[in-house]
Amino acid sequence: VAAPILAGSIESVVANRAEVQRYFGLTKFGEIERRMGAGLIRRACGTAFAANAGRNTVMSATSFVLTPILFRLYMPQEKKSTSSMFWFGLGMNVFVGNAVAITLQALWGRTLDQLAASAAAGTRPPSYGHVVRRSLQVDGAAAFFTPAKWFSRVLMNAPAQGTLPWFYNQVLPLGEAPVRRAAQLADQKWLPGSPPGR
Hints:
By secondary structure, the protein is mainly α. It folds into 2 domains: 2-162, no CATH class; 173-198. It has 9 helices and no strands. Helix 1 packs across helix 4 (49-74).
């Protein structure tokens, strides 16, 4: 459980600030940061970090935790194959991971919009609870989930991320034996006297 949270958080530490800069543009982003008086950690992580990290955590957990566990536990043994793993992983990504992730992506964008409005008005930054309540008042559930949002995210994300469980279990192992042999040869060459197959 900790692994997807850590992976999602690390990805967001690396990418969120750049995504926010792209969302606002460098000039507007700099003005907002100055007006909001962002501290060192917020500057490093970027605004709306929790929503961004939540989205990345959901996608990581779907690909690397939920899909393999559910496939192993609930796919009938006689149906387990390379093909069924491929389609199961893609289905989990499309109908589970992305269905949740688009709501967090929408929360991220709406938080940034309300943050910009708060900065312009000189008021406190909005909380996530305020953003959710305000968005639901204005747009209802469509603020966070619509078929168009889901479809556009699936087109962008599912082909690559939805096939990761299949790739890690079916493609990567094909190169494992040659890599291990090369590592053993290098080990024997640079560390004379090391036992073969160490």
